[in-house]
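USER:
Class, as today's exercise, take the chain set out below, and explain how the chain folds.
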Amino acid sequence: MGTLNILSLIVFCIFLVSYVLKLVILYRKNSIKANVLAKGKKSSGIKLTERLVKIATFIWGATWFSMSLAEPYFVDFIGRHYNLPVVNFAGVGIVSLGCAVFILAMTSMRTSWRVGIDKSATTKLITRGVYRYSRNVAFVGFDLMFSGLYLMYPNFLTLIILVLNVLAIHLLILQEEKHLRLVFGQEYDDYCRKTPRYI
């Protein structure tokens, strides 16, 4: 296993552990089941979008993990768009930045953090900290990680995963915006005027 793959695997493990740890902490300390993706009573549009996100992000995570462990086998099977170590290692940096942004977003949201749209509980509208600069900090982190995966392992599979996930996340953001507008009304409209959707 080369240096690139070791670094990739380390960042993947940091991402996975932080994600699972946040879910466990919210449940044990606050009795909050934060993973509500495609669960509960929701409109068909929301459920469909959340299912797409669930499938797309699972494929992304499984591919990232598999490529880190067995990249040479993937290259033999699906090829590689280019072989530029400086770009591949830049991908590690972008994935790492995305992971850091995602973790920062999770911690900033505190008990309001959810995976998916939570129709069963009213959370606080978080507008402070990193959320002063972006309304979707966690999703910016995800988009960086999707992009970084392609730069680390440039092939048709990771390119499709990049496009599919960016699209799925954007559709989820649009659904979340409708939900937040219904829940928070003018407060959310004011926040949207001051803060960009992405960056």
About this structure: The two ends are 36 Å apart (CA to CA). The chain has a mean pLDDT of 95.
